[in-house]
Specification:
The chain is α+β, with helices and mostly antiparallel strands. The protein contains seven helices and nine strands. The structure holds coenzyme A. Coenzyme A binds next to helix 3, strand 6, helix 5, strand 7 and helix 6.
Length: 209
């Protein structure tokens, strides 16, 4: 077993986690807006209830997806090119408090493979690199998966009625945490550019001007 270095070092990662999950983790950008909206709209009623702590309709989910793309740092986990998990980091509106919010959702078919743990690591690293001081995750009090995830960190838990608040202290950024986020972003950009070039080339071949 090892602990991840740098900004995400509070989160325990072991070898079995690494082997359990395959798939690609990357930031979602404005070009992914429709994909993210489709992901949220595909959530079943129980998952919507768990994620948003109440019943939410499609209009709410469309607005939420648009808000994330415009204002948050969003990570997506892809299995076989399908988006199966999303981690959200909403930066503090008041920078002075340093309090960011995070949330996670994984499709039922992809759960218990370490995906949320992986999203949490990425979100924590991004929070550190943006000099957030704490990360608040709100879930229903009987959400055992979230409780276990929070237990991997030095989270302070508080319960009020049906709601569990986990406040995670965000470590200071390190050269390594900046490097890892930057390298991941650069590799995503290169993949996107290459994909655009291939798509353009296919378009030209299929319907030459
Ligand atoms: C919460 C959620 C994101 C977890 O996703 P996941 O990819 O299945 O989580 P992981 O595989 O990384 O598992 C994390 C831990 O929770 C445990 N776990 C997962 N599902 C569990 C369940 N139903 N009951 C008990 N423990 C569970 C795992 O065994 C793991 O524990 P460990 O630290 O001892 O290894 C997912 O269940 C989900 O999308 N739920 C609906 C949305 C939601 O509730 N979001 C939280 C509010 S923001």
């Amino acid at each position: 077993m090892r602990r991840e270095e740098g900004a995400g070092r509070q989160v325990r990662l072991d070898m079995s986690d690494r082997l359990r999950f395959a798939g690609r983790l990357r930031k979602l950008q404005s070009r992914d807006a429709a994909l993210l909206e489709g992901f949220f709209l595909s959530l079943d009623a129980e998952t919507r209830q768990s994620r948003f702590h109440g019943a939410v309709n499609d209009g709410f989910l469309r607005r939420h997806a648009a808000m994330l793309i415009g204002e948050a740092v969003v990570y997506g986990l892809f299995l076989d090119d399908a988006l199966v998990g999303v981690g959200e980091l909403v930066l503090p509106t008041d920078r002075a408090t340093g309090k960011a919010e995070a949330a996670f959702v994984v499709l039922p078919s992809a759960r218990r493979r370490g995906i949320a743990g992986r999203l949490l690591n990425a979100v924590l690293r991004s929070a550190a690199n943006r000099r957030c001081r704490s990360l608040m995750i709100i879930s229903l009090r009987d959400n055992w998966a979230m409780r276990k995830l929070a237990a991997r960190t030095a989270a302070r838990l508080s319960i009020a009625f049906d709601v569990l608040e986990a406040e995670i202290a965000v470590p200071a950024p390190t050269a390594l945490s900046f490097f890892r986020e930057t390298m991941a972003d650069m590799s995503d950009t290169m993949v996107s550019l290459a994909t655009d070039r291939v798509e353009e080339s296919v378009r030209r071949t299929v319907s030459p001007a």
